[in-house]
Design brief:
Layout lengths: L3 E5 L3 H14 L3 E5 L2 H6 L7 E6 L6 H13 L7 E5 L4 H9 L4 E4 L4 H12 L19 H15 L3 E8 L14 H18 L5 E5 L3 E6 L4 H21 L8 E8 L6 H22 L3 H15 L3
Parallel strand pairs: 1-2, 1-3, 3-4, 4-5
Antiparallel strand pairs: 6-8, 6-9, 7-8
Amino acid sequence: MDGTVILMDYSTYERQKIRHIIENVGHFNIIEVGDVNQFKLLNTDIADLKLIVMDLAFPTTNDGFAVLSKLRSAPGKPVPIIIVTQADRSDLKTTALRYGVNDYITKPYPLKRLESSVNSLVKTEKPFNYDTSDISEIKMSFDSYVEREIKYSKRTGAPMSLILLTTLQLNSDAGAEPGITAEYKASVFNIAAKKAREALRATDTIVLNHGRDILIVLPCTDEAGARMVSEKIKSYTEPEFAKINSNRNEYIYPVYVTFPKDGDSFQALMQTAFRKVADKEMLEKIVSIPPDTRKYADKSYNRYRKWW
């Protein structure tokens, strides 16, 4: 908002025309006054009052001068006043100038005449606009983006974390599980992507890798923060997976890695992340073994270990 303008004219049509001109100059709060009684009720002690535009015949010139006298007798810094009137007599112009009127415009007048006068008196600050239309688009690979974040972390000493969301491969030895269609896999992936976005901050970046993996970059985030975001993603996704009767081992599973603890480059961090996924897959396979079979395996392993 560029301030407040008081617009005083007996004619509704003239007020609308002048309002349109003022709105072209800036974003003002415009107070319209249509007669002397309205002016008497008006409190002109407005902190951001920038300008007064008034007709001297309000509805008579005597009324107009009475208004001018009251305006100029008010305490504080004088507010610029533009007179816009049909009263084209030299004696009226001279009297108006004695009241410190900044401009005297006679009706009818070109619209640009009043617009220029308003512009010169309120001097609204136009927002700076730097033209970037001829600058070529900046293109950066995801690897380069992550490496840039790592360099920033090195320079500032702030940690940076990655989250990898991928499906556990528990049935790769036995071939594809029957009943799992491409549409079903896409549905699981889309749920994970949507809910992951809901769990992130505005400064985080999420990318989808060919409907297979989801990568999330967490700037200025340590291991504890990455763990919290991972748990948040799991809490958001699991109820949605349950709605489509997805088996727990078919979920998109999040793992997190942190620079510099888990790697000093993008590829090193991703290698650690996939190692965590492989460890999780092995754990899930072991847990899925029936208890009696697992006891027998443990007993055989312990007997074998006695020889060493």
